Amino acid sequence: MTAILCSLSELDDGVARRFEFDGTPVAVVRLGDRVYAIGDTCSHAEVSLSEGDVDAEECALECPAHGSLFSLETGEVLCLPAVRAVPVHSVRVDGNQVVIGQ
Predict the structure, then answer these.
(1) Which of 2, 19, 24, 59: disulfide with 101, CB 3.0–4.6 Å?
(2) 36, 76 Cβ separation under 8 angstroms
(3) What is the mean pLDDT of residues 2-13?
(4) Reading across the β-sheet that carries 97-101, which strands appear in turn?
């Protein structure tokens, strides 16, 4: 399944934004020309990751509740207290459209 999430110009650089994909919340982040999509729910505190800060140097998203960092590339935990990764979704830019899924 694939879906158009938005236009690339709707994503602010270095800011997370929440979308729904196939009934699941997804945090989408634009860093320059790259776009990433990971599960929006922290595996530790079950809060929305899209409300957290983006760490561009680490290519990660910080949980706003306890500061866990999640890699935007792999979903892996980079900083405790979380210990479980979040899912990563395939995302690409097609023209000016951000497309998620295979």
Answers:
(1) 2
(2) no
(3) 95
(4) 2-7, 97-101, 91-94
Question: Would you state the pLDDT for residue 46?
Answer: 85
Residue type present at position 43:
S
Predicted TM-score of the model (pTM): 0.94
Decide: 11 and 98 in contact? Cβ < 8 Å.
Answer: yes
- The pLDDT value recorded for residue 17 is 97
Whether the per-residue pLDDT at 102 is higher than 80: the answer is no
